[in-house]
Write a structure and sequence with these properties.
single chain, 2 domains, 10 strands, disordered N terminus, about 45% helix, eight-stranded parallel barrel, alpha/beta, TIM Barrel
Length: about 300
Amino acid sequence: MFGVNYTLYLQSPIINFMTNRRSFLKTSAVLSAGLLVAPRLFAYDKKYIGLQLYTVRDAMSKDPAGTLAKVAQIGYNSVEGATYTGNEMFYGMSGGDFAKVLKDNGLIMPSSHYRLGEDGADMKGTILNDWSKAVDDAAALGIKYMICAWLSPAERGTLEHYKKIGGDLNKAGEVCKKAGIQLCYHNHDFEFIQEDGKYPYETLLANTDKDLVKMEMDMYWVTKAKQDPIALINEHPGRFPLWHLKDMDNTPKQMFTEVGNGIIDFKNIFKHAGKAGLKYFFVEQDICPGSPFDSITKSITYIKSNLV
């Protein structure tokens, strides 16, 4: 028709652009639909398998560099710190020195634990004492999440006191936000002891800004308290960017055990990673039956075969 060479026409840049654009839009639509149907597939970077360093605390206190090298050799590429509070150093090292040890071993440390500090006015680097320096040091090291790790018995108190703690966490979260860091709160089981029919954990959730204060869910302690991790995720979507993978053995004592060696259904919980807002998870085993390095090896073997 009109002497047009259709072969050249169909190969022209304009037609190729239109064809590629249609393919792009179609692919984008399929991808978007996939996100709606299966958001868990896009929830977190599966290349990172983390370890909470409290698990190897004795070794870290004696030889932090050697311990981190061993953790990396086992296969972990992400760690969570546990010892800044006290001397305002990372395992006896400045932030710069500690960052070099991490880098030399191919490790990242996206999060670290801190104390509230209500029961120790002389304790530095806590949420209530010299927090700005703690945040500055964390930011310099590249930490993305600062975690209120634990409340001592003296810090717990009544539901009214938990409301006050919620306010303290909000203020600390504002300081973190200015540095590009997210504050979180790590649970144990005592937050699920009812007072007047309410859980302190509910009080903390209700009295903290959902954007300023997220939660690090410890699967063992939630289960120990006879709570359902999936139910909590459904009730508070997007509030749990960090998880502790800690299993519970099938004995009356309900002791800590290696991931996959206990009764917690991690496979099912991971199906809800997207709704939880999961970004990083960390293996933690407070007490090991033998060498903690043997235990963390068993845990990562299960994780690689079943969860990521």
